[in-house]
Write a structure and sequence with these properties.
The chain is an all-alpha fold and about 210 residues long. About 85% of the residues lie in helices and about 0% in strands. It is built from eight helices and no strands. The radius of gyration is 21 Å and the shape is elongated. About 35% of the residues are buried.
């Protein structure tokens, strides 16, 4: 069977939490529960590094506004991770060219990441932090569940991942107004901080001039 369904699903999951995907695939491969995972993802050093990064994301992803900064920093990381994982899975199975697999995994991860980032922006327009924690936990368990499911039922997992991707895009489009408000508020905060710093510097300068006079 072609490895394409697993590549698509891992790409979708990488766009949400790339570290969890690599960690789960590596653990399942290292423990012998599946033969689909390449040896490079099963290395102890790789598992330790992604384990630490996963814990960092688990914390940052549940703090309002910090989660959006984390998402912005991972705009490149997640699609690249999806592409690399896809290429490695293709190389392991030999049923799909690695370049094509990387394109599928990377593009799916990019769309999934944009959906996640947009949803978080919309959620951050709400002042209470509970929604961030609930959404983050749902993403964590969702990624874990679908990656494990994909290792044993790849086609069904691909259908689920594709449906979630389409639904996510629809939700982001529906919440476009709230996302614009989030971006406008963030821009205003930056302008206020910049204006405050200029004002302090100006006041200090006036004091020096007055004292010199």
């Amino acid at each position: 069977m072609s490895v394409l369904p697993l590549i698509f699903t891992s790409g979708w999951a990488s766009g949400i939490n790339a570290y969890a995907v690599v960690l789960l695939l590596g653990i399942f491969g290292a423990t012998g529960l599946t033969d689909e995972v390449p040896a490079s993802l099963q290395r102890t050093d790789v598992l330790v590094v992604v384990g630490v990064l996963f814990l960092c994301e688990a914390v940052a992803d549940k703090i309002p506004f910090v989660d959006s900064v984390w998402d912005a920093a991972h705009t490149v990381v997640r699609p690249v991770a999806g592409a690399v994982v896809g290429a490695l899975l293709a190389g392991q199975s030999g049923s799909l060219p690695e370049l094509a697999a990387g394109a599928v995994g990377g593009s799916t991860a990019l769309v999934s990441h944009l959906v996640k980032a947009g949803t978080r922006m919309a959620v951050n327009t709400s002042p209470e932090p509970a929604s961030n924690v609930v959404l983050s936990l749902a993403e964590d368990f969702g990624v874990a569940g679908i990656v494990v499911f994909a290792l044993f039922h790849p086609v069904a997992a691909m259908v689920i991942a594709g449906s979630l991707l389409v639904a996510g895009v629809a939700v982001v489009l529906f919440l476009a107004g709230r996302i614009r408000r989030f971006l406008r508020r963030r821009k205003e905060r930056r302008e206020r901080r910049a204006g405050g710093g200029t004002g302090v510097a100006g006041a200090a300068g006036d004091g020096v001039v007055s004292g010199g006079g």
